[in-house]
Design brief:
Blueprint lengths: L5 E10 L23 H4 L10 H13 L3 E2 L2 E2 L2 E4 L9 E4 L6 E7 L3 E11 L3 E4 L3 E4 L6 E7 L6 H17 L10 E8 L7 E7 L1 H17 L6 E6 L4 E7 L9 E2 L6 E2 L12 H10 L4 H7 L3 H9 L4 H16 L11 H12 L5 H13 L4 H7 L8 H14 L1 H8 L4 H13 L6 H12 L1
Parallel strand pairs: 12-13
Antiparallel strand pairs: 1-10, 1-11, 2-6, 3-16, 4-5, 4-15, 6-7, 7-10, 8-9, 11-12, 13-14
The structure holds zinc ion.
């Protein structure tokens, strides 16, 4: 079987997490429709845009993290088109001279980055039996990231998106809960790599589905043409929209209302450690690579892990399994979880002072209120029973009260042993040392 040759390029739109919009002081916070608006973002005649410095700094961080060549001047253009989501009839974007070009990003191979630029988001449109427009979104800053068609499979595209989103979190330029949108272009060798672009795909799972769908469709079809398609997320298929328009159709002009901004003083900004570097650090501390990868999926979790003081490999196990479980969708900062107390909890388990199941329950409490672990364990008398005499006493009692289970075990039912240990735990409220209890029960039966 010959290997299918596929070329995939992505044009990704990411909302940059600034306090205010790109060219006015309207807030970017969620609010009821059409309340975060002003003459600038509504495009009233005579209103003048003023560029948001925070957005400029953040687009530079993004372009740097994607290893782009950077321009010292920020130059905007107008992209003219008529559509109700754009009250000015043009979008302020960067065209001829994007802030970043010719970069690359490593994700299961080197993906070249064609350009990175800053632009404003149009309003959002909801269609019911009417068309509803919310201009709150109009003018919020977007980063557009365009790759060369270097991606060769849907899995690689997904891995790329995942890593990109992760690093944008590390740069603190993107809120994890914001949706990501992309135009996806897919071409196959069979058609002579005719370029088909699918517009406005939301979320990286759908991006993967679009690629898989398009590859199947283009392999099957007799003639594939250069065209723009849409994605019907409900029917899980693409549909033809128009034969590809060219950028010239948008009649770009340089934006006359915004002066050229000298950004050279921002270009020296230092990048924080990104996910690959964090993963490497953790592996060097002895953490299993798979665990390191999972911990670094979330910056808040990686930061938390870094602050722990207990043995890294054991701690990583607890972070990956238990911390992520109790956090659910909450950010660490939204809870009472504290890395020092978390480490103490793990150390108590490691010293066999505390049974694992009790520790897991305490961890759940630690999410919801401030707890001094050692005091809490003392006060509630939760220490593991290590006293052989005490354990022997409860074991004797359990065996006496559960004769049937003892007989079952003797006649080969392994499960009966688990039951007996369980009964013992019940009696000691989970505090008996599990291994000792197990051994003592076996000793006595045999
Ligand atoms: Zn505004």
């Amino acid at each position: 079987m010959s290997i299918l040759k596929i070329k995939i390029g992505l044009e990704i739109h990411v909302t940059i997490n600034t306090q205010s919009k790109l060219f006015c002081s309207c807030s970017t916070k969620q609010s009821s429709p059409n309340t975060q608006v002003c003459p600038v973002c509504l495009g009233h005649p005579g209103s003048k845009p003023v560029t948001n410095k925070e957005a400029v700094k953040k687009i530079i961080l993004i372009a740097k993290a994607l290893n782009c060549e950077l321009r010292e001047e920020l130059i905007f253009s107008r992209k003219s088109y008529f559509y109700p989501d754009l009250s000015k009839n043009y979008q302020i974007t960067q065209f001829e001279e994007p802030i970043g070009e010719n970069g690359f990003f490593e994700s299961k191979g080197k993906i070249r980055i064609k350009r990175v630029h800053l632009e404003e988001d149009p309003a959002s449109i909801t269609r019911t039996n009417k068309t509803l427009i919310d201009y709150n979104r109009s003018g919020t800053p977007l980063a557009e990231i365009v790759t060369e068609p270097d991606i060769t499979s849907s899995l690689q595209a997904r891995a790329f998106m995942k890593k990109l989103l992760r690093d944008l979190q590390y740069l603190e330029v993107f809120n994890g809960e914001d949706v990501i949108k992309a135009d996806v272009n897919v071409s196959v060798e069979k058609s002579g790599f005719k370029r088909v672009e699918v517009k406005n795909v939301t979320g990286f799972k759908d991006i993967q589905s679009v690629i898989e769908h398009e590859v199947r469709r283009q392999q099957k079809e007799e003639v594939v043409e250069n065209e723009t398609r849409g994605w019907d997320a409900a029917k899980r298929k693409t549909y033809s929209m128009r034969k590809k328009e060219t950028e010239a159709d948008y009649a770009y002009i340089y934006e006359p209302d915004i002066p050229i901004i000298d950004v050279s003083k921002f270009l020296g900004v230092k990048l924080p450690k990104l996910s690959d570097e964090r993963i490497k650090d953790f592996i060097e501390k002895g953490v299993d690579p798979v665990d390191a990868d999972i911990i670094c999926m979330r910056k808040d979790v990686a930061d938390f892990f870094e602050k722990t003081t207990s043995e890294p490999k054991i701690t990583s196990y607890w972070v990956r399994r238990e911390l992520l479980r109790v956090l659910e969708d909450n950010a660490v900062e939204e809870t009472f979880l504290d890395a020092k107390e978390f480490s103490k909890l793990i150390e108590l388990v490691e010293k066999k002072t505390l049974n694992e199941n009790i520790a897991k329950e305490i961890l759940e409490l630690m999410r919801d209120k401030k707890i001094d672990v050692k005091k809490y364990v003392e006060k509630n008398n939760l220490k593991t029973l290590n006293d052989d005499n005490l354990i022997e006493e409860t074991v004797k009692r359990v065996l006496k009260e559960n004769q049937k289970a003892v007989e079952d075990y003797k006649s080969g039912e392994e499960k009966a042993l688990q039951y007996l240990v369980g009964q013992d735990m019940k009696l000691t409220k989970g505090k008996a040392h599990p291994k000792k209890t197990n051994e003592m029960i076996l000793e006595r039966i045999e």
